[in-house]
Amino acid sequence: VDPANRAWMQGKTYRGQLLPGDLIPGFAIGEVLESTVSGLNRGDIVEGALGWQDYAVVTSADVIVRDRALPLEHLAGVLGITGLSAYFGMLEVARIRPADTVVVSAAGGAVGSIAAQVAKISGCRVVGVAGGAEKCQWLTDELGLDAAVDYKAGNVFHDLKAVCLAGIDAYFDNTGGDILAAALALMNTHGRIACCGNVSEYDLDQARAGPRGVPGLLVVKRVRMEGFLVSDYFHLRSSAEKVLREWLATGQLKAPVHLVEGFDKTPRALIDLLAGVNRGKVMVRI
Ligand SMILES: NC(=O)c1ccc[n+]([C@@H]2O[C@H](COP(=O)([O-])OP(=O)(O)OC[C@H]3O[C@@H](n4cnc5c(N)ncnc54)[C@H](OP(=O)(O)O)[C@@H]3O)[C@@H](O)[C@H]2O)c1
What we know:
Blueprint: H1 3-10, E1 28-31, E2 45-48, E3 63-66, H2 72-76, H3 81-93, E4 101-105, H4 110-121, E5 125-130, H5 133-141, E6 147-150, H6 156-163, E7 168-173, H7 177-186, E8 187-195, H8 216-221, E9 224-227, H9 237-250, E10 257-261, H10 266-275, E11 281-285
Parallel strand pairs: 4-5, 4-7, 5-6, 7-8, 8-9, 10-11
Antiparallel strand pairs: 1-2, 2-3
Bound molecules: NADP nicotinamide-adenine-dinucleotide phosphate.
NADP nicotinamide-adenine-dinucleotide phosphate binds at residues 2-4, 81-82, 85, 106, 108-112, 130-132, 135, 151, 174-175, 177, 179, 196-200, 228-230, 273-274, 276, 278, 282.
């Protein structure tokens, strides 16, 4: 379950607007039950945009065969769109360097929790922004982040400034909105902002005005702010997956999962996701 499922209902994005009655598109792991093409066999585990449904009829171009031996939770999370977005966003877009101060918003979520750990493993000082004291505590205690800011508690700009005394070198933006505005004002010269998503806007009736400081602060600080889609980097997927699998195997990388049982719970899972009940990737097992 992805925040984008909600964003697609708002209007045209990189896909057409979802309308009442449409199948909700979505990334899923499936098992081949019947095949009429070579290269896909009954029992194969595949990933693809299978949508919110028990059964999908697809062409072979719509799916890729995955390794049956890998846990389904990894295929649907850290080794799928989620982990790859975090990995490419940090390393290819934010282009983090050791000793950078790196801030990640929605840091307790699916992409954010992996992105923050990628930066930690790369030798950065990492600050997470998340909703609620308990989630923030979990980020420092369990995921090993250097600090965490609860954006629901106080003034996110002041709280972020207090833990980023030397400014921010790279900001991984999952939220847009007030957190982006706060980070933007604290960016160091030649800082990088990787725009992964803007979940703070997905559940609103109307889009809000963008943050102040664009383009003024970008010019003065020569900050590079760049949006990306994970698919932009799919040509690097196999090497990225290899690294992520090594980090998982050595225990350097944790892949938290919020597992919901039962297809009928899927709509509720999306509502809960947007409310922030999750730590890590929300996924539904059918
Ligand atoms: N560019 C790409 O290719 C790509 C690919 C995958 C995902 N994404 C984007 O990455 C972002 C994260 O996706 P995800 O799947 O990892 O979801 P997620 O972070 O697991 O879930 C969304 C989280 O957003 C937080 N949130 C909700 N409303 C918020 C608000 N108003 N302000 C700040 N935080 C809020 C909630 O956590 P709190 O408890 O902290 O509020 C919630 O857990 C989304 O923007 C998504 O669209 C982009």
